[in-house]
Amino acid sequence: xxxxxxEFRRKNGFEAPYDQLQILSYxxxxxxxxxxxxxxVPLTEETPALATIIVLYSLLLLALIIGAIVSSAMDPVDxxxxxxxxxxxxxxxxxxxxxxxxxxxKVHKRSKHCRVxxxxxxxxxxxxxxxxxxVGGVNYRPxxxxxxxxxxxxxxxLAWNAVLLKRFLEDDQFHLxxxxxxxxxxxxxxxxxxxxxxxAAGVFTLLIHLVGFHIFLWYRGxxxxxxxxxxxxxxxxxxxxxxxxxxxxxGVTLQExxxxxxxxxxxxxxxxxxxxxxxxxxxxxxxxxxxNGANGGxxxxxxxxxxxxxxxxxxxxxxxxxxxx
Length: 325
Known about the structure:
The chain is mainly alpha-helical.
């Protein structure tokens, strides 16, 4: 466990503490790979198609292993923190470098501080719990290749598993064609095929959703972190609009009841001054928000790094999954 300035800082995904989703991914793919070579291949008749499937699956598996190792082993840290560019926020000039109050040094504008890894990540995209590593500018391409290859691998296994399950259900003697399955019960073989199919279907669904999501981000020119911030801003604006409408409706419908000199209850009609006061309050609130926004912008202009991203899981598929910080 690497310790920097008395604090833990993860260098790559193979360093403890390990994430539960990372360990789960090892079990899932271990089960799928063993099911393919120990169950699906022996159940398939020896034909040129079988040889093609085995070769294709093996090549995809090799690419997946290499991609996963590279994505997990690479350190996406902003290398500026290793340059000993120590400074206080006031001493940092405006420009391409900002000051991170957690790393206590200058970092690039597109860097974000990950609380899980406790470091600033260059061109931060998200923290992937499945890889136990942050995904940034250095390892984003290997990460995308890895999830793309993994989706192709699981898609191939899912399709072949479905074909064999169909044949198994149509022919009661289907499993007897394989020599080392002749002493196995049909019910046990059927259960193994169904479980293998369900696992492959679940993993494939998560992966294809993750790949599609990152293609969408690429098309929009956004990172996962940019997308999360945009969604948060939309939710905040929607909540603020709902609260404003609720206040407006209550101001119109709620009217004070008074009793005149004759004892007859009467309702006061809303006065224009009330609306003026409300409008004035709204304007004052807007001015306050504007001042806050100006202060926030001033922080960036003064060279202070933006707030660190909060942990999340988006999409929380294998990526990246769930993605997220």
